[in-house]
UniProtKB/TrEMBL annotation:
Stretches that traverse the bilayer: 7-27, 85-105, 131-159, 165-184, 191-209, 239-259, 271-296, 333-358, 379-400, 406-428, 435-451
Protein family (similarity comment): Belongs to the sodium:solute symporter (SSF) (TC 2.A.21) family.
Organism listed in the record: Gymnodraco acuticeps (Antarctic dragonfish)
GO CC terms, sorted: axon; dendrite; perikaryon; presynaptic membrane
Localization in the cell: Presynaptic cell membrane
Main location class: membrane
The organism's taxonomic lineage, starting at the top: Eukaryota, Metazoa, Chordata, Craniata, Vertebrata
Catalytic activity field: choline(out) + n Na(+)(out) = choline(in) + n Na(+)(in)
Protein name: High affinity choline transporter 1
């Protein structure tokens, strides 16, 4: 095994830079929020809600732009059967940020929530919040694991060092500065991460383009030279699959705590929207060098390079095309700078997912579901422990399981199919309740898992219209096997069925209980008849005029306790900087006085 000293030095410098910035951000903001009386735990989760446009724009862009994004975009452009037409991530995630900014950022930020799960617990109660935490947690953990797994593979290409060692070191650095500084460290390291990617890749592109082994990429875009044109095409039979995948990226990219963590840390609702739009532009800009590198890979005569005569796609290394192009088509100093930047970027992508998972657990599961009397110090310690536990879990999965990408695909599908329709329901549809939410959860999960997941060797038990069987080489065993391919847009259909199921079952349950068709004593989820009873204070209902029931109609409730619990979701100081329309809404206290 040869160790490239220059490569190791380059990576060490970038890692050190990220670590120093993370620790500096933690030190600089250690007293942030104290003057306004903000809890330390809330400062760790949403950065004292004072993230400005510059840092905010970078950190929002880094929600999706990381190692997986730039490597994946280059891979799809390079793959002969896909090409640019199937590299959906740049436009999909950019539109996801636009849709999130237009419709979701303002209501979430203006209501002063702390995590994405807050509105679910407010409307559906703590038990349902706990159920919705499961797909959200799986998504964050598997995303981190997939990122770390990709990092290990990338580093092994560059410096030929042990994959496991590189993954563990990277994870430890990310966990350390996240533990120390919370969202501030994550946000400031995101700035460095994006600048590193941008400079590192743009320095490399001109050298790779002018390499003698590379043909004119404008020619290879439309003509077959070394492989089919990299522009790609969408076959008639694949149209619905393409649409399904695009909707998954565009709409399924919204209901993630990593996104809402940034939205909720913005200094106002309008800022949260502006940051989303800035990030959408940032996503497109950051994809350009990746697309060019994928195109360069498709336009290269590998026989003329140090890589060898067999192309990466034939060695099953298409997913590593970006580090391969940087290493074999650029001068050593350029390649190590580019690869050092990319590896540092990948490492920095894992931090926000780990912080997101621990934020949701500490607040929505530990504090609101089990220990509402927990002190701020206690919640901070729970967060620190879970950052370490979830970080360790993601690292372990990256090292041990070869199916981490399959788990990530499936869990991101479940976030789209289960959480997205319920997020629409809690924010925009009046009258949905816990019965509808449970039904929607089951509908979505059944319809999605029923479609199977070839990557995990999970056969379907629901055969949607247009399904076919294809022979594929399994990525782990290398054996040929028959795989059922669903050509129907079943993910988006599952999402719509989940949404309609929520609305239909909610209104049906409401009608049956309120009309007396079913006795009130059977309202075992306390979701319709007993919605405001003293027994279910876990509902933590927001009391705002014209939106919820007034306190005088809530006889069994202790007024002071209802105010305290509402305050768990809505901090009055978060509303100060909002629009006049939002200020007109009564705070829980004022509703109490009105009565």
């Amino acid at each position: 095994m040869t160790i490239h000293v220059e490569g190791l030095v380059a990576i060490a410098i970038f890692y050190l830079l990220i670590l120093v910035v993370g620790i500096w951000a933690a030190w600089k903001n250690k007293h942030s929020g104290e003057a306004e009386g903000t809890n330390r735990s809330e400062t760790i989760m949403v950065g004292g809600r004072d993230i400005g446009l510059f840092v905010g724009g970078f950190t929002m862009t880094a929600t999706w732009v990381g190692g997986g994004y730039i490597n994946g975009t280059a891979e799809y452009v390079y793959l002969p059967d896909y090409g640019l037409a199937w590299a959906q991530a740049p436009f999909g995630y950019a539109l996801s940020l636009v849709v999130g900014g237009l419709f979701f950022a303002k209501p979430m930020r203006s209501r002063g929530y702390v995590t994405m799960l807050d509105p679910f617990q407010q409307i559906y109660g703590k038990r349902m919040g706990g159920l919705l935490f499961i797909p959200a947690l799986m998504g964050e953990i598997f995303w981190s694991a997939a990122i770390l797994s990709a990092l290990g593979a990338t580093l092994s290409v560059i410096v030929d060092i042990n994959i496991k060692m590189s993954v563990v070191i990277s994870a430890l650095i990310a966990i350390f500065y996240t533990l120390v500084g919370g969202l501030y460290s994550v946000a400031y390291t995101d700035v460095v991460q994006l600048i590193c990617i941008f400079i590192g890749l743009w320095i490399s592109v001109p050298f790779a383009l002018t390499n003698p082994a590379v043909s004119d990429i404008t020619v290879t875009a439309v003509k077959q030279v070394y492989q089919s044109p990299w522009r790609g095409s969408i076959g008639k039979n694949d149209t619905w699959v393409w649409i399904d995948n695009f909707c998954l990226l565009m709409l399924g990219g919204i209901p993630w705590q990593v996104y809402f963590q940034r939205v909720l840390s913005a200094s106002s609702a309008t800022y949260a929207q502006v940051l989303s739009f800035l990030a959408a532009f940032g996503c497109l800009v950051m994809a350009v060098p990746s697309v060019l590198i994928g195109a360069i890979g498709a336009s290269t005569d590998w026989n003329q390079t140090s890589y060898g005569a067999i192309a990466p796609k034939d060695r099953d290394q298409a997913d590593m095309i970006l580090p391969i192009v940087l290493q074999h088509l650029c001068p050593p100093f350029v390649s190590f700078f580019g690869l050092g930047a990319v590896s540092a970027a990948v490492m920095s992508s894992a931090d926000s997912s780990i912080l997101s998972a621990s934020s949701m657990f500490a607040r929505n599961i530990y504090q609101l579901a089990f220990r509402q009397s927990a002190s701020d110090r206690e919640i901070v310690w729970v967060m620190r422990i879970t950052i370490f536990v979830f970080g360790g879990l993601a690292t372990l999965m990256a090292l041990v399981t070869g199916t981490v990408y399959g788990l990530w695909y499936l869990s991101s599908d479940l976030v789209y199919v289960i959480i997205f329709p319920q997020l629409i329901s809690v924010l925009f549809v009046k009258g949905t309740n816990t019965y509808g939410s449970v039904a929607a959860y089951l509908f979505g999960m059944l319809l999605r898992i029923g479609g199977g997941e070839p990557y995990l060797r999970m056969p379907p038990f629901i055969y949607y219209p247009g399904w076919t069987t294809e022979q594929r080489i399994h990525h782990m065993t290398g054996e040929m096997e028959d795989v059922v391919v669903q050509k129907f847009p079943f993910k988006t259909v599952s999402m719509l069925a989940s949404f309609l199921g929520n609305v239909a079952v909610s209104y049906l349950a409401k009608y049956l209980f309120e009309s007396g068709k079913i006795s009130h004593k059977y309202d075992f989820l306390d979701a319709v008849v007993s919605k405001h009873s003293g027994e279910i204070m876990d509902k933590t209902t927001l009391v705002t005029r014209g939106n919820n029931i007034g306190l005088s109609e809530m006889a069994p409730v202790k007024p002071r306790l209802s105010v305290t619990l509402a305050a768990a979701f809505k901090r009055r100081d978060t509303l100060a900087a909002e629009t006049v329309e939002e200020e007109d809404e009564s705070s829980p206290d004022s509703s109490h006085h009105d009565e």
